[in-house]
Design goal:
- The structure is a single chain.
- The chain is an alpha+beta fold.
- It folds into three domains: 5-306, no CATH class; 338-424, no CATH class; 432-489, Orthogonal Bundle (Arc Repressor Mutant, subunit A), CATH 1.10.10.410.
- It is built from 16 helices and 16 strands.
- The chain has helices at 56-68, 177-193, 234-255, 283-286, 301-309, 315-324, 329-336, 339-352, 355-372, 383-394, 400-413, 417-424, 432-445, 447-454, 459-471, 478-489; strands at 5-16, 72-73, 76-77, 80-83, 93-96, 103-113, 119-134, 138-142, 153-157, 164-170, 206-216, 226-231, 263-268, 273-279, 289-290, 297-298.
- The strands form four sheets. A nine-stranded mixed beta sheet has the order 2-6-7-10-1-11-12-13-14. Strands 5-4-15 form a three-stranded antiparallel beta sheet, with no helix packed on it. Strands 3-16 form a two-stranded antiparallel ribbon.
- The longest helix has 22 residues, at 234-255.
- The model has no long low-confidence stretch (mean pLDDT 87).
Length: 490
């Protein structure tokens, strides 16, 4: 008879802070797509005699994140040296925080959703701590063609060495891969909302170490765990946890119990399985001691209160805001999870004050035309250009239907609404005299429709309006056509 086992998961999340310079030196913090070893200096390369200087902007961003997560920021904290030896760590130690981290004891509320985006339940994951540290470099393993596997040569790129990181450690409150992903997604939204990190996982700005263990349901003991290192996407986080849970369950049945000791494994994306790396390290292995070259940090209560007062709306508040505008749950998440899309949506709503119209303009029309053209939101018209189109519609320069054609051409050509309207001769006809003449022609050309309308069939009026719009090539102001037509018929 199989035992009733539950899955226990905790995460360590590493997020690169969006600062101009690195954590302890003045080197460029943007290493993406740069030639190897061009954004380095003696400090981030760990040369003897160099002294680190703390990046104040990084500290502020870490404090903002701590407060957004509901953590208590320590009035005093310090940096520590964490020793390990690997080619991508030029100094032989990482400057991190151990016994006195920046903040402790927060929480993140998150939602589980079904395939349609509907909320099925709400959960809370506690945050153990948030501390600051610098990143290591990047290793590239190359094969000479004579050997298989990881290759016979390792190249070191230190552009990323010294990058400012936040490490956010959770309590073991997650009970499935789905919960871990939902929590991580909500955490990413918070990091972006408070402008602490771009959290672009494609660029390696957000990575996960996931610890997973099993225990019998109803027990409280935490058994030895398997730590999965360096997961760089939500997909890999989910698949790695699902695989490791299945593997641990099989081992439990085979061995009659949990792991004998904690281990560290690596996730192999191509093979979709884990590989044993080593036994799990302990704090003693890292030989922590206070960093002698960096003075302790002190935060005054007034300083923290000022930072907290400046926090923007957090994801939950934003969700409620978009739902109040008439968006459904899926649309609200769509806007929240794409900062470029949210910028456009918010700009259009601020102008129109109409949630339904903004959804139509941005989520239906704009995204529809972009998808058809195989373009991303950043490749199409920006908020300023779209506002020009909205103003043209509101001013009566073009009709709403003509506005769709203009937007499609804006996406296809990159031209402005003003230039397209002028070049295509799409200006809406609003002159009363011209519209009156068109209406009289419509009445004369549609005697059957007129008779039907007089017999009480209101829909017949639409056919007459359609005739006017066709004759004017869609340029007649439909509101004025309706009003003029009713006036003439009465």
């Amino acid at each position: 008879m199989s035992l009733n086992l539950e899955c226990i998961i905790g995460l360590e999340v590493h997020a690169q802070m969006s600062t101009k310079t690195k954590m302890f030196c003045g080197c460029d913090n943007d290493a993406w797509n740069k030639a190897p070893n061009v954004t380095v200096c003696p400090v981030c390369m760990g040369h003897p005699g160099t002294l680190p200087v703390v990046n104040a902007e990084a500290v502020t961003k870490a404090v903002r994140t701590s407060l957004a997560l509901g953590c208590t920021v320590a009035s005093d904290c310090h940096f520590d040296r964490k020793h390990y030896f690997y080619p991508d760590l030029p100094s032989g130690f990482q400057i991190s925080q151990y016994d006195f981290p920046l903040s402790k004891a927060g929480s993140v509320a998150y939602e589980l959703r079904d395939g349609s985006g509907n909320v099925t339940s709400e959960r809370v994951c506690r945050i153990t701590r948030l501390h600051m540290e610098n990143d290591a470099g990047k290793l590239t393993h190359r094969s000479t063609g004579l050997t298989a596997g990881r290759g016979s040569k390792t190249l070191c790129d230190y552009n990323r060495a010294g990058t400012p990181l936040m490490e956010i450690v959770t309590e073991p409150d997650l009970r499935s891969a789905a919960e871990a992903v939902a929590f991580a997604q909500e955490l990413r939204r918070i990091l972006i909302a408070v402008d602490a990190s771009e959290a672009d996982m494609f660029k390696g700005m957000m990575r996960f170490d996931a610890s997973i263990s099993l225990r019998e349901v109803g027990t409280e003991k935490l058994n030895p765990r398997s730590e999965i290192k360096n997961l760089n996407s939500f997909k890999s986080l989910e698949k790695a946890l699902q695989y490791e849970e299945k593997r641990l369950r099989s081992l439990w049945e085979k061995e009659g119990g949990p792991l004998k000791g904690s281990i560290t494994v690596g996730w192999m994306d191509e093979e979709e399985k884990t590989r044993l790396l080593r036994d799990k390290e302990t704090a003693d292995d890292y030989r922590y001691f206070p960093e002698p070259d960096i003075p302790p940090l002190h935060f005054a209560s007034k300083e923290l209160q000022a930072i907290k007062a400046q926090l923007p709306k957090l994801p939950k508040e934003l969700r409620d805001h978009y739902l109040s505008l008439g968006l459904d749950s899926k649309q609200a998440m769509q806007v929240m999870d794409d900062t470029a899309l949210r910028s456009v949506f918010d700009a259009i709503y601020t102008k129109t004050k109409d949630g339904k119209r903004t959804v139509s303009l941005v989520l239906t029309q704009l995204l529809g035309f972009l998808n058809a053209a195989n373009k991303a939101i950043g490749d199409g018209p920006d908020a300023t250009e779209l506002l020009e189109l909205v103003e043209a519609i509101d001013a009566g320069t073009i009709s709403g239907n003509a506005g769709k054609d203009v937007m499609e051409k804006m996406v296809a050509t990159g031209k402005s609404a003003k230039d397209i309207i002028a070049a295509e001769g799409m200006q809406q006809i609003s002159d009363d005299g011209v519209i009156e003449a068109l209406v009289k022609q419509a009445i004369a050309a549609n005697p059957k429709a007129i008779a039907s309308w007089k017999a009480g069939k209101e829909a017949a009026l639409g056919a007459i309006v359609g005739w006017v719009m066709k004759e004017s090539k869609g340029q007649a102001n439909p509101g004025k056509v309706n009003a003029m037509l009713k006036k003439q018929l009465s």
